[in-house]
Amino acid sequence: MTAQEEGVQGGTAPRIESESWGRLEVEGESGSFKDAKLFPGGAREWDWGETGTEHVPGIQPDDARELLEHGAEVVVLSRGRMRALKVPKETVGWLEKQGVEVLVLPTGDAIRRYNELADQGKPVGALIHSTC
């Protein structure tokens, strides 16, 4: 059972162990994800249909809410490999109002920065889009 299934808040954020177009493999998770929500204590598939997310207008505050519920104090938002996924100012503003540090980066940079923060034991969360 994953930490997310157990409802555990906190803990160490899992590393992204390998990545390629359309595929993310995450420490402690069986199988792979196309897009991932990562947070202290676990990870799961990021299903855009849950919040109506599309490339435009982009990542919604409700996409990130779960990361904060699991204790993330730094949030990395991936724009995709070709920066096709938008990140509205409203989403960044909402996160900042919650007292969260926000980093908006293309996917490769987002994964590197997320893993660095996870390795440092920071309470980091991320929304990673593995394609465009």
**Low-confidence residue ranges:** 1-8
Strand content: 25-35%
Tell me the major beta sheet.
Answer: 5 strands, mixed
Q: What is the percent of helical residues?
A: 25-40%
Which strand order do you get reading across the main beta sheet? 4-3-7-5-6
Shape: globular
Amino- and carboxy-terminal Cα gap: 31 Å
Secondary-structure content class: alpha/beta
Q: Helix count?
A: 4
Order of helix and strand elements from N to C terminus: HEEEEHEHEHE
What is the total tally of β strands?
7
Gyration radius (Cα, Å) is: 13 Å
Mean pLDDT, to the nearest integer, reads 93
Description of the structure:
The chain is of the alpha/beta class. The chain is 27% helix and 26% strand. The chain has four helices and seven strands, in the order αββββαβαβαβ. Strands 4-3-7-5-6 form a five-stranded mixed β-sheet, sandwiched between helices. A two-stranded antiparallel ribbon has the order 1-2. Strand 3 (35-39) and strand 4 form a beta hairpin. The longest helix has 13 residues, at 107-119. It is globular. The termini are far apart. Mean pLDDT is 93; it is low at 1-8.
Q: What order do the helices and strands come in, and which of them pair?
A:
Blueprint: H1 3-6, E1 16-20, E2 23-26, E3 35-39, E4 42-45, H2 61-69, E5 74-78, H3 89-97, E6 101-105, H4 107-119, E7 124-129
Parallel strand pairs: 5-6, 5-7
Antiparallel strand pairs: 1-2, 3-4, 3-7
Q: Which terms summarize this structure?
A:
single chain, 132 residues, alpha/beta, five-stranded mixed β-sheet, 7 strands, globular
In short:
The protein is 27% helix and 26% strand.
